Amino acid sequence: MARRAQPGKVEEQVALFSAGMLVGTDAQLAMFDRIDVREDLRSITVPTLVISPLADLITTPFHSREIADGIPHAELVTLDCGHAIAAERPEAWADAMTKFLTTLPHAVEPASTGRNPHRCPGAARPRAPVT
Question: What is the model's pTM?
Answer without folding.
Answer: 0.61
